[in-house]
Design a protein that fits this description.
With 205 residues, the chain is mainly alpha-helical. It has one domain: Orthogonal Bundle (Tetracycline Repressor, domain 2). 69% of the residues lie in helices and 0% in strands. It is built from 9 helices and no strands. Helix 1 packs across helix 2, helix 4 packs parallel to helix 7 and helix 5 packs antiparallel against helix 9.
């Protein structure tokens, strides 16, 4: 990657990033044309190749960028400081809602990339995902007290289920192709959060 990309105005960087998220989220890796990304970003194809030497380089940059953006917003919302799982999930979902309002296609791209089977990028994506998810899961599980949850509950399995349901919800929303309303997303997630608490937390006697 050409480091000159980072010398571009932030607004122009974001336009290129969002264009990549959108085009790659709508097609397989192989069928995503660099020309379409350049057109959506409002730059020439040759200039896009000036910043990213090939399609694979841009694709993997966007994958890592999606992770970096997520970590940035989670940190900003103090998610990593929480010891309570559901407060962490709540802060995390609000952070992701903020991200989606800024980067509308980021969730759809991340999901598409995760399931991408093209050998040019598949192994790199899966290796990166395992490292990121395992670290995130370990952080979330470290402070949990089994006494807070229903007897015999597999906390790691519970965390994975909630994580996958959250990702699925964001995927479903991103596929609707409508302008995202933060208040609607927050209300939906609050309802899901209340359901999870009712299912997993130990009832007071």
């Amino acid at each position: 990657m050409n480091e000159k990309f980072y010398f571009l105005p932030i607004e122009k960087q974001q336009r290129i990033i969002n264009a990549g998220f959108r085009v790659f989220s709508q097609n397989t890796y192989k069928k995503s044309p660099m020309q379409e990304i350049a057109d959506e970003a409002g730059i020439s194809k040759s200039l896009l190749f000036h910043y990213f030497h090939n399609k694979k380089e841009l694709y993997l940059f966007l994958w890592e960028k999606a992770a970096d953006i997520t970590i940035e917003y989670l940190t900003r919302n103090h998610c990593y400081e929480c010891r309570d799982l559901f407060e962490m999930m709540e802060r995390g979902m609000y952070a992701k809602i903020q991200i989606m309002c800024q980067y509308p296609d980021i969730s759809a791209f991340a999901m598409k990339a995760f399931y991408e089977k093209d050998p040019a990028v598949c192994e790199d994506i899966q290796r990166s995902y395992r490292k990121y998810f395992n670290r995130k899961a370990a952080d979330a599980l470290a402070g949990l007290d089994p006494e807070d949850f229903i007897p015999g509950l597999d906390l790691a399995m519970m965390h994975r289920q909630i994580y996958l349901m959250s990702v699925g919800y964001l995927w479903e929303i991103s596929q609707q192709g409508e302008v995202l309303e933060a208040k609607t997303l927050e209300a939906d997630f609050s309802e899901m959060l209340a359901f999870w608490k009712n299912v997993y937390l130990r009832k007071e006697s």
